[in-house]
């Protein structure tokens, strides 16, 4: 078995940093969008992605909290065989299950309907800088206080803040939600975002980013979880583990890691691999962020990622 030092030596060298000034030209930005920020960086390979996916699936099973999104992604239409590439092996949930995912009209009362694109976007906004449990409680409280998005739009900001305060940053999140609904009503004439389902990925990104307060990570989560697109969000767990495995250069920030990983990871692996990396980052003691106490993996097996990286590198990675 290779030593830690050997693995560091064998990692591909990261590209030389760009010596140009901080402002990018439009041509440079376009090139990065099409080729990725590290076009000569060879990892991860498709084989590595598949192997890590399989190893984490064997350890955890497929995470139960993501099964509703996986069902929406792979559920066949009437008379069509399922296209699911993996069995739905369920692991113990990290938090309580939410509503089942099914598209439905935006004007249905929030507390009694299934999740729509606008529901997904707002729930993603509420998940920022808090735990899954707290964000789920905040969204449930919002649904209970305001039956429809029209009610949310008409409500006083303070009332919304009170409804979502359990999720933290209620003033900032309320402002973002109010601006989103106001802008959506002005642009589309109704509080509905199902039109995004008919757009390309690039069109969806441009549309969502046109709303103030909607950033790249939120867009990526909406694309993958709520629009069933092949995208690979990079949260703190994915970012930390990807760096430790040498899948991105050590100097990469989260935005460049997102662009690079989306270029390198095969589309058919993105959803399952992302969900499993997030789950592993939360449950594995060795891979968890230093100082953060998480629920331990209920298995005597060693961390399967030790085959791909020096786990002690997790302690030195800057997020």
From TrEMBL:
Name of the protein in question: HhH-GPD domain-containing protein
SMART domains: ENDO3c
CDD domains: ENDO3c (cd00056)
InterPro entries: DNA_glycosylase, HhH-GPD_domain, HhH_base_excis_C
Domain HhH-GPD: 126-283
Family matches, as PANTHER family: HYPOTHETICAL BASE EXCISION DNA REPAIR PROTEIN (EUROFUNG), PTHR47203
Any matching Pfam family: HhH-GPD
Coiled-coil ranges per UniProt: none
Segments of skewed composition (Basic and acidic residues): 1-12
Taxonomic path: Eukaryota, Viridiplantae, Streptophyta, Embryophyta, Tracheophyta
UniProt-recorded Gene Ontology molecular function terms: catalytic activity, acting on DNA; hydrolase activity
Residues covered by region (Disordered): 1-49
Gene Ontology BP terms: base-excision repair
Gene3D superfamilies assigned to the protein according to its UniProt record, in alphabetical order: Helix-hairpin-Helix base-excision DNA repair enzymes (C-terminal), Hypothetical protein, domain 2
Biased composition (Polar residues): 17-33
Originating organism: Nelumbo nucifera (Sacred lotus)
């Amino acid at each position: 078995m290779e030593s830690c030092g050997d693995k560091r030596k064998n990692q591909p060298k990261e590209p030389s940093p760009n010596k140009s000034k901080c402002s990018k030209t439009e041509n440079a930005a376009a090139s990065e969008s099409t080729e990725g920020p590290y076009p000569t960086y060879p990892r991860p390979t498709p084989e590595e992605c598949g192997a890590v996916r399989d190893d984490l699936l064997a350890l955890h099973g497929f995470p139960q909290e993501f099964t509703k999104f996986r069902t929406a992604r792979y559920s066949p239409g009437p008379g069509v065989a399922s296209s699911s590439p993996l069995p739905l092996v369920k692991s113990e949930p990290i938090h309580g299950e939410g509503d089942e995912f099914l598209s439905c009209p935006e004007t249905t009362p929030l507390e009694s309907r299934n999740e729509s694109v606008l529901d997904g976007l707002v729930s993603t906004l509420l998940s920022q800088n808090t735990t899954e449990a707290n964000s789920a409680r905040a969204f449930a409280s919002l649904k209970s206080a305001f039956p429809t998005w029209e009610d949310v739009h008409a409500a006083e900001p303070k009332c919304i803040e009170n409804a979502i305060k359990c999720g933290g940053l209620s003033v900032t999140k309320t402002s973002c939600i109010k601006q989103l609904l106001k802008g959506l009503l002005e642009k589309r004439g109704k509080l509905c975002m199902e039109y995004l389902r008919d757009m390309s990925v690039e069109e969806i990104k441009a549309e969502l980013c046109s709303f103030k307060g909607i950033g790249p990570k939120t867009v990526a989560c909406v694309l993958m979880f709520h629009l069933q697109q092949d995208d690979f969000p990079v949260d703190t767990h994915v970012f930390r583990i990807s760096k430790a495995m040498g899948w991105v250069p050590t100097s990469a920030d989260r935005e460049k890691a997102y662009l690079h990983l989306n270029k390198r990871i095969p589309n058919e692996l993105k959803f399952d691999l992302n969900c499993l990396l997030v789950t592993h980052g939360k449950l594995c003691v060795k891979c968890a962020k230093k100082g953060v106490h998480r629920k331990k993996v209920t298995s005597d097996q060693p961390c399967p990622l030790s085959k791909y990286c020096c786990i002690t590198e997790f302690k030195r990675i800057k997020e």
